[in-house]
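Render Tyrosine specific protein phosphatases domain-containing protein in 3D.
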Amino acid sequence: MPVLGVVAAFAGVRFWPYGIILIWFGLCCIVLGFAYLRPGLNLFCKTDTGRIPLYMSVIAFPYLAFTYVVWRVNVGLVSESALIVIDDNLIVGRRLFPHELPRQVTHVVDLTTEFSEPSGVVERVAYQHLPIMDGHVPLRDRLLQTLEELPEDAVVYIHCAQGHGRTGLVAMALLFLRGEIASVSEGISLLQSKRPGIRLNSAQTGFIETVMGRG
């Protein structure tokens, strides 16, 4: 990400003043890259009600706008279902539009830092924000606290942007805490049998192994 930022910034300088948006985007990417050095960082200051403040939306506009466009294109072009039911108390998937949220959901755990949660979702359920940068991991204690606060009878919807890496990591942690899986391989097999697109990178795999007491 920092490399992309540097390239974009230099390209912007070359085409000054028309390249100012590239410089802006490049600086956002550079800051974002360094943010990955700190797990669980809520870089865009997203609130407990799921909103990215206006001032942060302005400061990071090029990156946030780019991310939103990519997300919308994926939603429109990818044939994958928006969500999938894992069991009676757990549903996982991508960021949803309000009308897509299943009626039975009582709690939403939002893992994105880069999107505001639609107000139509937040107003209908008990909402929790667990900030995780795309492709990264959360703070271990924050993860466990968030999941342990969920009532036993809660019907939980866990989502990131596309419902793959971050979602798979946190869903696996919840299944482990509930005693429904005993290993990472078992968790991956279960989740991928329901949603094949779920993939954990090496950092996420190492993290969940640590959570399960195997790292």
